[in-house]
Amino acid sequence: MTRCWRWRVSPAVHELAVCQALMQQVEGIARDKGAHRVTAVTVRIGPLSGVEPELLEQAFPLAAAGSVAETAGLVIETLPIRVRCDTCGAETEVSPNRLVCGDCGDWHTHVTSGDEMLLASLQLITDEDTAHV
Ligand SMILES: [Zn+2]
User: Fold this and answer.
1) Helix (H) or strand (E) run with residue 36 in it
2) Counting CB atoms within 10 angstroms of each CB, which of 5, 109, 110, 115 has the fewest?
3) Domains and CATH numbers, the chain
């Protein structure tokens, strides 16, 4: 008899590493602000960053376990992709599979936004009150 095993989907190693780097940043900020708990973490992810939002969501609780952000919610916002045209100088918003100038259609462009992942904001609980940074 042949049995078929399906792989359980687990967070990719890449996203876990990204999350761990993110948590270091979060913990550093929380320490600076004197926060004892982080309730929400907002990140912005560019479609060209190579980070899968879905995998990041799965990896987050693992990376946050035992940290100041253990119970924090993760909010993911998507960044637009923008390119600057080397020919006409225009900066336009484009789609991931079509990195051409939105103005003149030239493909001599370089990405100015959309390949990064940013820590956008944190919601913190300090001794005094709830802070938002
Ligand atoms: Zn152009």
Assistant:
1) strand 35-45
2) 5
3) 35-132 (3.30.2320.80)
Taking the centre of ligand 1 as the mean of its atom positions, its distance from the CA of residue 109, in whole angstroms, is 8
Amino acid at 46: G
Q: Are strands 35-45 and 73-78 parallel, antiparallel or unpaired?
A: parallel
Distance 111 CA to ligand 1 centre (A): 13
pLDDT in tens, 61-104: 999 999 999 999 999 999 999 999 999 999 999 998 899 999 99
Tokens of 42: 């907002």
In this prediction the pTM is 0.79
In the reported structure, the alpha carbon of residue 101 is separated from the centroid of ligand 1 by a whole-number distance in angstroms of 5
48 C-alpha to ligand 1 centroid (Å): 20
Q: Tell me how crowded residue 101 is: count the other CB atoms within 10 A of its CB.
A: 21
Mean pLDDT throughout 22-44?
95
